UniProtKB/TrEMBL annotation:
Domain of life according to the entry: Bacteria
Database matches in InterPro entries: NTF2-like_dom_sf
Naturally occurring in which organism (per UniProt): Rheinheimera aquimaris
Protein name from the UniProt record: SnoaL-like domain-containing protein
Amino acid sequence: MHQLEPAIAQFIQAHNRHDTAAIVSFFDPEAVVLAQDQIWVGHAAICRWQQLQPADHTLEITAVRRHFGEFYLQTRWRKAANDADDCQYVFALQDGKISRLIVQTRSNIR
């Protein structure tokens, strides 16, 4: 397993359990998520964003890189045995909580 900060590792685990309440708890109350061409700010909005995620997939980490205090996770969004999409998750932390998350799909990764 890749060495991750606790909030990020717990986010991935909760994401794979589809536990929205746990996911939101790892974010700062004023955190920002940039995903699906939208901006989600604060716990209530992040909860709504998470509820839009398909319940039939899991995140598999394929690579981790830390750069200037941000964590870049290359992931594979596994939907079924032979169906997966590559994504990049970029996390910023503040005081042990996720303060910003940027989710880029394969088509947006450059």
